[in-house]
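Human:
Class, as today's exercise, you are to examine the entry below, and be ready to discuss the fold:
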Amino acid sequence: MATYWDPFQEMDRLFGSIPLTTRNASAMPMDLFREDDHFVLAADLPGIDPGSIDVSVEDRTLTVRAERTARSAEGQWLLRERPAGTVARQITLGRGLALDHITAAYADGVLTLTIPVAEEAKPRRIEVEHSSHPHTIEAGG
């Protein structure tokens, strides 16, 4: 008698039995959107000491790094889901950005970076000149 074996179902069963006591400490959810002549990056960093936030740009790679310290507790932990340690994200930025004019602010657990578009990359209108005198072609003899 043959039995049906599904390897994916077996993997789900195995991974479902592993207790997940901590979340991924490297997670840093973020949004990135364009607003007029600049980009805005908003990264969730709840519980982070603002002094531990490091934002740097090298070449065209933007790096955001921060440290979340573990809370020490007297007695026994009953539940521990809040991650501790270093969180970091890197994003490769496109050309046409004013990387030397990036600003950063941290409020209510959200790091907000404003990345302006470089002047030379901003769209501009080019006027088309036209003559009011039409050119005529004369027949020559």
